[in-house]
Design a protein that fits this description.
Elements lengths: L8 H13 L4 H16 L8 E11 H4 L4 H8 L4 E8 L4 E10 L1 H12 L4 E11 L1
Antiparallel strand pairs: 1-3, 1-4, 2-3
This protein binds nickel (II) ion.
């Protein structure tokens, strides 16, 4: 299938540089990125009693200023966020590492809300299942 997407020019250039270095054409690279994202999210379909792990976020401070939605979310989900580390990367970028532990449904709910935040640049999730 063919589809069109809008992305920032800088991101596309960087992506094209990487895919050229890896000798991948753009379509194949997008397929791989989509599969990686789907694989990363697979754990939500399994029924572990508890999960634990880390969520790493990179976001622009400017987008969040005044509203601080990430902070509000963290207060809403204080029951599963057991630790937080905030790093000011430079004048406009922040990196945040959240340690999570709790029911998978609750973690999924939180992560889906984080995904929808404006200003989110990157997100990495590593979770283990606890019996
Ligand atoms: Ni910061």
């Amino acid at each position: 299938m063919r589809f069109s997407v809008s992305i920032p020019e800088r991101l596309l250039k960087e992506f094209d540089r990487l895919t050229a270095r890896l000798s991948l054409d753009r379509s194949k690279a997008v397929r791989m990125a989509m599969r990686n994202m789907l694989a990363e999210y697979k754990w939500t379909e399994r029924m572990a009693e508890q999960v634990a792990g880390v969520l790493v976020l990179q976001y622009t401070f400017e987008e969040f200023r005044g509203k601080s939605p990430i902070l509000r979310l963290q207060h809403q989900y204080h029951d599963i966020i057991i630790s937080t580390m905030h790093i000011h990367l430079d004048e406009e970028n922040c990196l945040e590492v959240l340690a999570l532990r709790g029911k998978p449904e609750r973690a999924k709910e939180f992560i889906e809300k984080v995904y929808s935040l404006e200003g989110l640049k990157q997100m990495r999730l590593t979770l283990v299942e606890l019996k």
